[in-house]
Amino acid sequence: MPSGAQPARRVLLKLSGESLMGEQSFGIQQEAGVEIARRLIEVSTAGIELAVVIGGGNIFRGVSTAASGMVRATADHMGMLATVMNALALRDEIEKAGGECRAMSALGIDGIAEPFVRPRAIRHLEKGRILIFAGGIGNPYFTTDTAATVRAIDIGARALLKATKVDGVYSSDPMIDAEATRYDHLTYTDVLIKNLKVMDATAIVMCREHALPVRVFNMHPPGALLAAAKGDPIGTLVTAEERIS
After folding, report:
1. What is the pLDDT of residues 153-183, one digit of tens each?
2. Is the pLDDT at 69 greater than 80, yes or no?
3. How far is CA 5 from the centre of its chain?
4. Using N-to-C axis directions, what is the helix angle for 30-45 and 72-96, rounded to 10°?
5. How is residue 22 annotated by DSSP?
6. Cα angle value 223/196/207 (rounded, 5°)
7. Which parts of 6-55 fold into alpha helices (H)?
8. The pLDDT value given to residue 80
9. What is the pLDDT of residue 75?
């Protein structure tokens, strides 16, 4: 890095598997993958180092009835495999659109995805490659929210971005409650005490312990992901600071 140059901004984006469904009830819709890939490339070409963790709900939903009678560890491993499928689909769309991308899995799947190795992951980011983490953290009983938090800490991300269907965190479900209030800023403790559905409690506690800011936003509006990645005031920001009125 040249003397006096600022290090690149590095962020991790948590996407739900449902973001790949489009208008379908489950599965992967190519058009949705193409649009997400375009937005990820937009962030990467702006000089921001971008990592992604994507869930597997869009695929696991199709077998959720059968999985309801399974041992929890077995069902969780199936969910982790679903995230690998989504990571491969998204990597394919990014590469077809001209972006450079790598997929790393916490589950050993030789020849399909690279194993997660922290120094190698950081090198990929430093080379400007979009990096997709799959397979959770390789163990059952942990959500993809927690996996996203762990990986964000692993790579030294400056922020964890969580893309949702609404434009931030509300006091209640805005789809149901017309009186729901949107928060511009919350503390980690606010989220835990008010039981706000930002991420699971384990993930929030880890973010608090590592002072990792979380920004919750709606990725659908044009330019929203780039704005969030740049640190612009969009959606709801969760930090250790007292709430800003």
Report:
1. 999 999 999 999 899 999 988 889 989 999 9
2. no
3. 28
4. 70
5. T
6. 70
7. 30-45
8. 93
9. 87
- Structure-token pair, residue 36: 């997400």
Question: Do residues 158 and 10 lie in contact, with contact meaning Cβ atoms separated by under 8 Å?
Answer: yes
pLDDT in tens, 172-216: 888 899 899 999 999 999 999 999 989 999 999 999 999 999 999
Cβ distance 116 to 94 under 8 Å? no
Q: CA–CA separation, 125 vs 133, rounded Å? A: 12
**Phi and psi angles of residue 71, each rounded to the nearest 5 degrees, phi first:** -60, 140
Q: Locate 35 and state its tokens.
A: 């649009």
Query: What domains sit in the chain, N to C, each tagged with a CATH number?
Result: 13-157 (3.40.1160.10), 163-245 (3.40.1160.10)
What value, to the nearest 5°, has the Cα angle with vertex 26 and ends 25 and 32? 90
Query: Tokens standing for 214?
Result: 């979380």
Q: Does residue 46 carry a pLDDT above 60?
A: yes
